[in-house]
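Here we describe the complex-level prediction in full. Unlike the single-chain runs in Section 2.1, the two entities below were treated as one system.
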Amino acid sequence: MTGQPYRREGATGTTLRFRFDGRDYEGLEGDTLASALLANGVRAVASSIKLGRPRGVYAAGCEEPNALVQIEEPFPEPMLTATTVELYDGLVAVGLPGQGRLADRPDPARYDAVHAHCDVLVVGAGPAGIAAAGVAARAGARVILADERPEPGGSLLGTTETLDGGPGREWAAGEVAALAALPEVRVLRRTTVLGHYDDNYVIAVERRTNHLGAAAPAHVARERVWRIRAKRVVLATGGHERFVAFAGNDLPGVMLAGAARTYVNHHRVLPGRRAVVFTTNDSAYAAALDLADAGVEIAAVVDVRRAPGETWAARCAERGVELLTGHVVAAAEGEGEVSSVRVAPREGGRAREIPADLLLVSGGWTPVVHLFSQAGGTLRYDEALGAFTPGETRQAVEAAGFARGVRTLRECLEDGARAGRCALAAAGFPLPAGDGASGTSLPAAEEEPAAAPAEHLWLVEADDYSAHFVDLQRDVTVADVLRAVGAGLSSVEHVKRYTTAGTAHDQGKTSGLLTSGVVAHALGVDVAQLGTTTFRAPYTPVSFAALAGRDRGPLHDPVRVTSMHEWHVARGALFENVGQWKRPWYYPRPGEDMEAAVLRECAAVRRNVGAMDASTLGKIDVIGPDAPVFLDRLYTNMMSTLKVGSIRYGVMCRADGMVFDDGTVIRLADDHYLVTTTTGNAAAVLDWMEEWLQTEWPDLRVHCTSVTEQWATVALAGPRSREVLAGLAPGLAVDNDSFPFMTWRDAEVAGIPARVCRISFSGELAYEINVSSWYGLALWEAVMASGEVTPYGTETMHVLRAEKGYPIVGQDTDGTVTPQDLGMEWIVSKKKADFVGKRSFSRPDTSRPDRKHLVGLLPEDPGVLLPEGAHLVATSELPEPPVPTLGFVTSSYRSAALGRTFALALVSGGRERIGERLYAPVGADLVPVTVTSHVLYDPEGARRDG
Amino acid sequence: MADSTAAERRSPAAAYAARFEAASAGGGLRLAEIPFLTRVNLRVDPKSPAAERIGTAIGVPLPVEPGTVAGGGGLEALWLGPDEWLLVGPDGAAPGLVARLTEAAGGEHVSVVDVSAQRTTLVVAGERARDVLAHGCALDLHPRVFGPGRCAQTMLARAGVVLVADEDGFRVLVRSSFAGYVAEWLLDASVEYVAG
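The structure predicted for the assembly as a whole is:
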């Protein structure tokens, strides 16, 4: 134990080795990094962000404003508080000057998230929380008890209070273990509730293996986000001690009194050898006496009050501790750490220097109302407490224990039980039998001395306020606050933004109310009127890794694949993402780049035969006696006249007349159509149909059912496709008269029941063969086994359709393009009484002559490939900005059939410009292009019948 | 009646059979695909005579309580919406079921669509099943709330699924194109419950 000079005698546990700021130390199992550093006499742990002042451990929990550290090993993690880092063997850390740095390598640990539901969520496993959870759990309710520390007990961990005659922490451990054994109870340790949202949706983060260091098992999630829905929430969140603004209140060696008590009792560490205690209330006396019992010399207790509690005064006298009532600490002094404390009578008079290496401060206790406030609860000022406590709430929430200002241990236990009963009743459970004023059996607490009123002192008045710190982490002093108030700011919210007080990692847990107090003091108003700043989630910092969880890498977003996907992968296809789908992009042969592969695939389709996996197209069965009327209203063209057995291409517009989607419509029966959508719009089109059916036309008897993945589809295209199909479907008459363009037939293809559609997206003779997706792979393999069918991907499909001037919705359109703009006047019915978008075609805007039309572009140099998105101008030299643009390139490819490059573009008044020369600024050059019709290949349609 | 087509069928999660089996070895969790089940989507007004005739014809009254399942063993009707059910039966039952439904519809406005291959069925069973699903399903799957006989259309991770509660676990009906994603997700979610 010689290595830990400030460790109390008799402390036991496994020795752990760690390194801090380059030096090796030893600590004990159960230590935090902060307690281990204190045990080794390390006072200055970090330095302040703005002023670079040395800073030591100030608190013993998540409210720590000073001791920011960065873990270096086993894995770099920035901006942690030394008071919440559990010590493990091999820990390497450094102190931070207010800012850390992110790891330069991916975090190898696993993080996950889980949804949970309960009748009662209890936040905080202190006396009130355990009592509340006990009542609810024993009545059979589903209970979650969450606590941020490694062990339950809350305030009991830092004190020497007894329950039922034994140490309070032992009662807590035993009771929580008993609750955890109940089948419907879940106890979450090391779990911080970060956010409390509407309808009792609560987010918590559980730190599951952080405390194991390098020994953490890789398959166990390091941190887990809990997404909890609770019928009722009990907030037993306890309190945070606050300090007082006086000169040098940031020196290492200045510490919150309750924190020192925790270090002495819980961690068996002496935070100093000789202490002065500065307090505004009774609570610091217990700390002083516990420290005295542990061997710390208490040089003086400085109480701002004239009349402290009599019992406490007597106990000080018993131990020979000097009590200075009506006094304040004017300054903590020392080089780099406290070596003496200047004490003065409050009303003025001679100051006195008291040598000390430790100065304990208690400016009173602030209930932790963060979650209550986040959940929409109001706060009210408690005059006796000098702090804000929960007021009204619209949520199903109870605050319990000190979180609502209840003081003594016995009262907190009783209040917890009360909250548990309220929650239980509200969640619909019968109250336990024998329920009376005292409720279930609670452990017996010791009698506590009668409380003397606290005095609410925010700052010790002085001439110079430049070292009276209000927010230690942000280096905000009383002088800064006075400057803000002097500049005319009178709201704490404004002062917060002006000074940055309360905006650090700790979100002002110890400083928030103090800031309000100092502002109120400066303005000469009451804190009760001034209020506090807003509490927002997260309660404590949370790592991005935890929030990302498993939604990273391959699981970041679903990858949708077709039934033929394995074949494409095996053949080395490259894939294009289309929405969440992976579609084969092209199939390079050895030595081929994309350009060569696509030219080869295009040539194969135009001259021979190719096959593409077209399974991703959206497919919707539209069934009902009113299906013809319904589709007439949704498509711009007529679908009711389509004959059973035939197919028609259709375009849908939004009400604004702009193209929304396109596809084919197949009539299977009088009351049964199958419509196809673009791959990316499948869900949107179904939603669109449902929206019209459910909101505008509920009288139509139509049902829509998605069958996108019921069917696998192989597109067979090229002059030899008929021959290939004939070979695969010997029972199908494939000649042009028996099976004409835009019709469908049921047939067996490769022995599989199939629906074959004669449609073409390339201008070539082509078929789409649809089978149950269970047989998709078998069909594809049969097609490939049939002979010289070239598999082709989406890039070739894009080139082929562009050569024919077929637009791709979403590529050649952008929601501002009408069918007429696309050169498809013919698809907009003049006969139908109405259809979605019709009225918009009578708006002057949709017939402006300068609307952008879809046209073709031929670069004058047939080898130049225009970038998609390139703009078009009329002049061969760029004019001064702003440059008037005539339009832009939407699709651009190399064409095997044309033996050159070409593009599609949306060009203002484009159809009137055919034959004109325009220029595309590309880098420093202006590339001359000739405007042409958008149909560049086989404009007569001579190839579609083979 | 098994399918008589000569060509070979392949179920959407067929590639995961071995990994599912390995993950099920510990006993706390069972992952498996049930391939090729019959699924028929039925839309009909529950108050219509057709709905009653259909219930009689298939031997399973269509459940009208939201999120419940009727039938069992041979044929189940899963409530998907106020006028929508998913009928689930054994492999090969689709043609006969469609015919019975169409006949029972009797020309009324009823839609019957064979969607057998639209989804596949993944079993997530065993005592850790609820833990695994809780990683990606926001619904309360506690037996007090979502016990056997309940079903729901919900999200599992980022995929829409139909979830059915059974005596010893759950069935996840997932769209075929999402089957690989959900299988990978389930295997990854199970790591903590099957390792060591």
